[in-house]
Amino acid sequence: MTQSAKPISSPVPDAWYPSLAVPMLAVGLVITASFFIYEATSSRKNRSLAKELVTGAAASFFLGFGSLFLLLASGVYV
Amino acid sequence: MSYVVGACGGPNKPFCKKEGFVHCSLRTSSLTIIVLHIFFRRLGSILSEKARLNMEVFVARSRLTLIFSLFALFSLSSSSLSSSTTELQILTAERRIDLASHIIRVVLTLKVQNDGTSAASDVLLAFPPAQAKHLALIQAAEVAGKKRKKSLHPLDVKPSNHADGPNGAKFYSISLRNPLGTGGSVSIDVSYVLTQSLEPFPVEIRQSEPQLVLYRDSALILSPYEIKQQTTVIRTPSTKVESFTRVEPSTQLRTELKYGPYEDQPSFSYSPILVHFENNNPFAVVEELVREIEISHWGSLQVTEHYTLVHNGARHKGGFSRVEYQSRPTISGVASFKHLLVKLPPRVHSVYYRDNIGNISTSHLRTGYSKSELEIEPRYPLLGGWKATFVIGYGIPLEDVLFESDDGKRYLNFSFGCPIAETLVNKITNKVVLPEGSKNPSVVVPFSVERRAETSYSYLDIVGRPVVVLEKENVVPEHNVLFQVYYDFHPMSMLAEPLMLTSVFFFLFVAALAYIHMDISIRK
User: Fold this and answer.
1) Number of A–B residue contacts, CB under 8 Å
2) CB pair distance less than 8 Å for A64 and B499
3) Measured on CA atoms in the order B114, B119, B122, B127, is the torsion positive or negative?
4) Does residue B465 contact residue B456 with C-beta atoms inside 8 Å?
5) ipTM over the 0.95 cut-off
6) Residue B70 reports pLDDT greater than 80
7) Are strands B185-194 and B135-144 parallel, antiparallel or unpaired?
8) Is B513–A53 a contact, with Cβ atoms under 8 angstroms apart?
9) Report field, pTM of the whole predicted structure over 0.90
10) Chain A interface includes B495 (CB < 8 A)
11) What is d(CA B189, CA B154) in angstroms, rounded to the nearest whole number?
């Protein structure tokens, strides 16, 4: 191959996968916990839907990426 | 240009004049047919077993010459090679046939001269139909310069669309770099690989017998042009040659049989010969190899190979005594093989070797800088006709094999053939699984393959992954060259997978919210 061949690798270095997976999952679970605590402690009148949705979105973002890196770290290259 | 046969009086002299050829050959051929048939039938019934074996060789050879003389009769009326305006002549031809392994490699050195009136741009090579069927690979190069300054320029060889020659000879045409002018000459090196051309004879052997094989070819090189001088040298793996057809002048010197030099042979001259020799090299043939190459843009290439291995030599008869096999390795099971060497890319990880029962632990992996070697030992040694099926899998880091080309396409650079050393593959299927979201796959392979497209579904897939399937038959180790698969992939498509996971979790949260906000109490 005489043309310039640029090797392609993953956008995130391989070695970072486990060290990305664990903190992201931890943060995601903490936010999930805060979501359910808010649900349990607030009364019907004080609930704010916007705050619930934002908490849910943030938690699902961290949980989603964390589980992806967990799959990659354990060898299931999806 | 008529087909001159060795039975008609020797390879050096065409027996009959052109005018009376039909009547002459009719008479001689019919006479020889009758006489030889009666003679050998009688002999065969009288002689003993061992002599019968040798006699069967002679009978086979005589039958060959008879068959060819019969064909010569019937093909006289058929058209010979259509006359071309260029007349080429081969000044010297040297053919070296290497019979050391079960894959036969032949190197043909030709010096071609143009005696005609117009320039020639192609040189034709002829092969008997049996050889053309088993031809796995053919390459040609033009030799320029002399001695130290020799340089080889590869030339294009492809099957020619000429009508078949006498007796169904098939043609291949070599395209020259520059057209050969009148009176000019050029040296060409042709190398080709023949498979499945060694017949085991005896067909079945016991555990303690060596393996003897037959090789059929011609002492004279089959060519559509006249050859002024030619030699053929056959190299056998050992000095144990049971018999070989003598076509004067032929000599045997240690492991080399030399036929020639023969002078002034007309075109399409053919003198069938038979070499019966001992070949105990492992006849390892993979009947089918299905290889799945899965690309994951997150950093790894996973290869899974399914093998069906068979020993293609003389079939094993009688019992198998393990005691005799292990205590006397030089006498017992000399034609069997226990170990296979698999050559893998350098930075390979997670190598496994298993079959239907489970993991096979008799394997050794040696990783290195330029290549890795996996030495595998199947659960039992393979004797003639025995089969083994297994799976080898390994992973390679992505930056070794996936590159980005200048026009923005990504391509995979991987080797096509079977990684097991010195093995013939009857059918190879390479499945390249591209990541989800890849478009427009295209393939660059240096030889002809059959291409198909499939879709496969794997982890976190919605629409499925496009699969490029490449199939080829009769694959030899010389086919272990790199091939490329080009495809388009937008980097944003990689986000599809984590976003899919995120949306699943978000859906769970929304469901929890909906349940909490719903008021299903009966009492207000």
Assistant:
1) 99
2) yes
3) negative
4) yes
5) no
6) no
7) antiparallel
8) yes
9) no
10) no
11) 9
